[in-house]
């Protein structure tokens, strides 16, 4: 859910940047907007000034909108040069953000598929482990029932009688040691 929210936020930022692009004066701005942000609307009236040099290319989009002569472009103020740089930076940032949103969407889809596959694998491993543990639990329960009924546990070489408890078994070991001259209680 968080990844889709992030994609939505990035998409909103791209739309916001495309909307801000409408403030840039360039007669062929519609072409630039269409190339950079396909969801932005083209302006209805063409602006009169352009911040790009004639024939300049910004992120593979030619700026043919500039029909000014070099003399006319030298009469622009320092503020216009600053705006030109910021408009160019703005277009570059917009194009980069659009590319990043597309890459993020691909990564989200890829990660979603990968996570779904991993979850499926983990689920099958968990089910197999549960089946093994259930079988082991049933075996232990069966052995406990047999032992409580007086039977022997398979694989156990000792035969347990109901009268023989662990305490009496220890006492018998002590007596056997005393018979052989060894006192196991003191050693």
Automatic annotation (TrEMBL):
<feature type="region of interest" description="Disordered">
    <location>
        <begin position="143"/>
        <end position="187"/>
    </location>
</feature>
<protein>
    <submittedName>
        <fullName>Uncharacterized protein</fullName>
    </submittedName>
</protein>
């Amino acid at each position: 859910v968080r990844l889709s929210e992030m994609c939505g936020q990035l998409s909103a930022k791209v739309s916001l940047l495309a909307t801000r692009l409408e403030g840039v004066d360039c007669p062929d701005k519609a072409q630039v907007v269409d190339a950079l942000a396909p969801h932005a609307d083209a302006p209805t009236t063409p602006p009169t000034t352009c911040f790009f040099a004639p024939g300049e290319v910004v992120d593979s989009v030619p700026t043919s909108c500039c029909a000014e002569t070099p003399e006319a472009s030298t009469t622009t103020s320092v503020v216009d040069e600053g705006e030109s740089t910021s408009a160019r930076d703005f277009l570059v940032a917009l194009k980069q953000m659009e590319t990043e949103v597309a890459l993020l969407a691909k990564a989200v889809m890829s990660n979603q598929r990968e996570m779904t596959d991993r979850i499926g694998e983990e689920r099958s491993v968990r089910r197999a482990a549960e089946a093994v543990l259930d079988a082991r639990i049933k075996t232990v329960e069966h052995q406990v029932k047999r032992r409580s009924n007086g039977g022997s546990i398979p694989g156990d070489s000792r035969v347990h009688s109901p009268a023989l408890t662990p305490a009496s078994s220890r006492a018998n070991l002590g007596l056997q040691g005393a018979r052989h001259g060894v006192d196991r209680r003191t050693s």
